[in-house]
Amino acid sequence: MKLLHFFRRHVVCCYSEAARLARHPLGSLMTVGAIGLALALPAGLSAFLRNAEGLAAVWGEARSFSIYLKDGASVAVAEQLAEDLERNPAVGAVRRISPAEALSIMEGRSEFAGALETMESNPLPWTLVVIPAPEAPDAEFLALKATVATLEEVDQALADTQWLERLSALLALAGQALLLLLFMVLVALVVIIGNTIRLEVQKQRDALEVLALLGASRGYMRRPFLYQGFWYGLGGGLVALGLVRLGLWILGDSFSGLMALYGGDRVLSSAGWRQELLILGVGVFTGWLGAWRAVAGQVRTLEA
Amino acid sequence: MRYRGGAEALSEVSLSIAAGEFAYLTGPSGAGKTTLIKLLAAIERPARGQVFVMGRNVERLSRRAICRHRRNIGIVFQNNLLLEDRSAYQNVALPLHISGLGPREVQRRTEAALDSVGLLRSARKSPRLLSQGEQQRLGIARAVVNRPQLLIADEPTGNLDPDLSREVMQLFRRMAGYGVTALVATHDLGLIEALPARRISLAEGRIHSDTGPA
Ligand SMILES: Nc1ncnc2c1ncn2[C@@H]1O[C@H](COP(=O)(O)OP(=O)(O)OP(=O)(O)O)[C@@H](O)[C@H]1O
Ligand SMILES: [Mg+2]
Questions:
Q1: What is the interface pTM, i.e. ipTM, of the complex?
Q2: At the topology level of CATH, where does B13-72+151-214 sit?
């Protein structure tokens, strides 16, 4: 029964603080909007990074390598080699790219268009893209590449993973920058929310003094302000969520276009419910912490 | 008792009020009536001497215990101390709310208290929109709503007409009849004559006289 009352008091307090904020919609919305913008920054960057990582995986097709056959190698030779490779347990798949296909891909890229028109015959060789089986160990796969390179019909076997490594390193760096950014945003938010609520506490100071004279505990006096912080944080979190979703939606089309260029069919992934929950949680936590910082000291000075 | 940077506001005041007793506190302005009340409610601390209320040494109370102590006392403050951004009803319900009572109990007691001072119809108004006398009655309703064991009123009838004053005083005496200890600071000698009781008279921070009920 007591517990029930306890919860009821909190719910009522929580609700009435929302009502109080709603009574000054403009000011509250501006605060919530500012909090949302600040939170959207790291949240958006995080969503971007996750998609970039996915993109890198698609582009790199993990550790795949390309085999360029000697000029004039026939369809039969290419097919034979491809089938041999496919039987190897380390190989997941082999993509065959005929000279004609390669040409049409290249023609699609404006920078080559002019160069190719001047040529009489197709200078491009047969290409096989070898994609490893997911469980294949690196060493085995690399050994395969070395063996293939020595084959008579093969011109060269190239694994261009350097740029991928660079990209991965860059993404890792960006991930660390994200943490730093998150930290700074959190500190800024605690200060912003703290100041907003400090003003409110000062406005209510006379009322708080009366409450103290009537025997209100510190917890009782703090409670409404903590719930204000809670609402600011939750509201800001929701705004940030909306902004991230909006951003992903706007960028979605260009992303799909980009993926199509590389033969992928990935779509821009949303933040995911875990991430979204995290954004809300971070918002609520900073709101509450800011409020606590603002109100705890003030309430302490109320008692002589 | 000495205010910070001030002269001694109360000195060598020694008195005791029995549980369930009704007493007036009188004396000219500046005599120290409000100061005595502040000592009882642990709002100020004595520089020397001790204050026992309901068997407890007020000075020794912990922070939490002071909260509980104040909840057990109903005080009508000299300047009412109403919250203007809340309705009359919310003002009166405040002590119940602070004590953590359930909503039904809060409503029942608040309405009863408002009714006892004739303000039930103004329940939704802000104290700002009430007359001085109405504000004073609101302060009284707030002091009695939590059924305190000790009721202290600091000039509760200063803005009330004679009829209302007598009614309020009778309300206090009725409460004393139920076992509530009541201490009422007042200048209204006519009222004291009409409803005689023990009268503690202060002058310049000392007890001038302490006369039993006539
Ligand atoms: N906060 C304070 N700081 C310093 N001195 C104070 C303070 N409050 C009251 N005093 C002094 O203490 C003395 C007693 O004041 P108190 O308020 O107790 O008088 P009172 O009997 O209630 O008077 P009144 O009938 O006018 O309300 C006065 O001399 C006053 O100047
Ligand atoms: Mg006084």
A1: 0.89
A2: Rossmann fold (3.40.50)
pTM higher than 0.90, yes or no? no
pLDDT in tens, A135-179: 777 677 778 888 888 888 888 887 766 666 677 778 888 888 889
Positions of E strands within chain A? 65-69, 91-97, 127-132, 154-158
Choosing among A205, A214, A221, A223, which should be mutated to test the B contact, i.e. which has the most B CBs within 10 A?
A214
Question: Any idea how long chain B is?
Answer: 214
Q: Using the beta-carbon criterion (under 8 Å), do A8 and B98 form an inter-chain contact? A: no
Question: Which protein residue has the closest C-alpha to ligand 1 atom 9?
Answer: B35
User: Is A239:A37 a contact under the CB 8 Å cutoff?
Assistant: yes
Binary contact (B81, A216; C-beta < 8 A): no
Closest of A126, A31, A117 to residue A76, by C-alpha:
A126
Q: Residue A135 sits in a domain of what CATH number?
A: 3.30.70
Residues of chain A contacting B73 with CB distance shorter than 8 Å: 215
Same domain membership, residue A289 and residue A187: yes
**Domain locations in chain B?**
13-72+151-214, 84-147
Per the structure, how many domains does chain A have?
2
Domain that holds residue A38: 13-57+165-303
